[in-house]
Amino acid sequence: MLQETERRVQRLEYLPFGGNGANLSVSILAEPGEVQEQSAAERASELERQIATLREQTARLTRQTEEARREGIEQGRTEELHRQTELLERCATGLTQAAESFRADRDQYLGAVEHEVVRLALAVAARVLHREAQMDPLMLSGAVRVALGQLAETAEVRLRVPAAELDLWAEMLRLIPNLALRPELISDERLQSGEAVLEAQTGSVDLGVRAQMEEIERGFFDLLESREEMRGAASEQASGSRGQAG
Fold first, then answer.
1. Contact criterion met (CB below 8 Å) for 162 and 193
2. pTM above threshold 0.85
3. Which UniProt key words apply to this protein (predicted)?
4. C-alpha 195: how far from chain center
5. Contact (Cβ atoms closer than 8 angstroms) between residue 14 and residue 25
6. What share of the chain is helix, strand, coil (3-state, %, to 5)?
7. Which of 44, 50, 225, 239 is paired with 99 by a 20 to 30 Å CA distance?
8. Residues with Cβ within 8 Å of residue 15, at least 6 apart in sequence
9. Cβ pair 223, 118 in contact under 8 A
10. Among 19-28, 50-59, 160-169, 185-194, whose mean pLDDT is lowest?
11. Beta-carbon neighbour count of residue 171 at 10 Å?
């Protein structure tokens, strides 16, 4: 058997071809121990690079997760704010419509109540005046005196009064001082206590309690109608202003 000899790797030298004569030597092999140390160092360095890369990726993933969590929370808050805003807008719209409906119903109710109150007040006043007329047949003497004062002295005037009160009216007219125009008294069976009709060439006027109450009633209802028209015009104007604002 051949004697085992120690392996050694010799440096391979190349002689120069021309030039300045310097030796060019290249080491193509290294010692086995050097190769193993170099491989371990490279593996350690590669492992460290991988660990660093993994840490960087982990940190980046953590940041992305945190950003996504914050974005999700912010998006949830934004959506909840939108829902709350829409709910408040619906509630405000409902309240506005309810207020407008209540205002319209209130105006209609007050208009109806005003008419009923006027009718009730006039009915009470008519009953009181009729009772006063029964107790004082000459209650209309003031109205007759005012009406006579507005007529010319040369006018021919007739005063129709209830038949049962003819003498009382004649005595009353006789006792009125400074009466420039004295009407002709005419008894009328159709008239009741508290009624009197003054007739002239230009026309006639009913001075009775009933006629005066009817005139007062017409005046009241005309006033109520004008107020309703003004209220309706104001409501339309307010609605138009709200529409332009909206």
1. yes
2. no
3. Bacterial flagellum biogenesis, Bacterial flagellum protein export, Coiled coil, Protein transport, Transport
4. 54
5. yes
6. 65, 10, 25
7. 225
8. 23
9. no
10. 19-28
11. 10
Residue found under tokens 């009407």 = 183
∠ CA 58-61-66, nearest 5°, is: 125
What HEC string does 220-233 produce? HHHHHHHHHHHHHH
C-alpha dist (Å) from residue 175 to 143, 148, 169, 181, 189: 16, 15, 10, 13, 25
Residue type, 65: T
The residue count of the chain comes to 246
User: Residue for token digits 């400074």?
Assistant: 178
- Residue entry with tokens 């004008």: 226
Q: Looking at the predicted structure, is the pLDDT value of residue 67 above 80?
A: yes
25 band by pLDDT with thresholds 50, 70 and 90 = very low
Answer for the pair 196, 168: CB distance below 8 angstroms, yes or no: no
Cβ(177)–Cβ(193) under 8 Å? no
**What is the sign of the dihedral through the CA atoms of 5, 11, 15 and 21?**
negative
Element (H, E) at 186: strand 184-188
The alpha carbon of 51 is separated from its chain's Cα centroid by a whole number of angstroms, namely 67
Per-residue confidence (pLDDT) for residue 9, from 0 to 100: 47
CA angle 75, 77, 81 (to 5 degrees): 115
**Whose structure tokens read 């339309």?**
236
How many angstroms separate the CA atoms of 127 and 210, rounded? 10
9, 118, 224, 229 from 219: Cα distances, Å: 138, 11, 9, 16
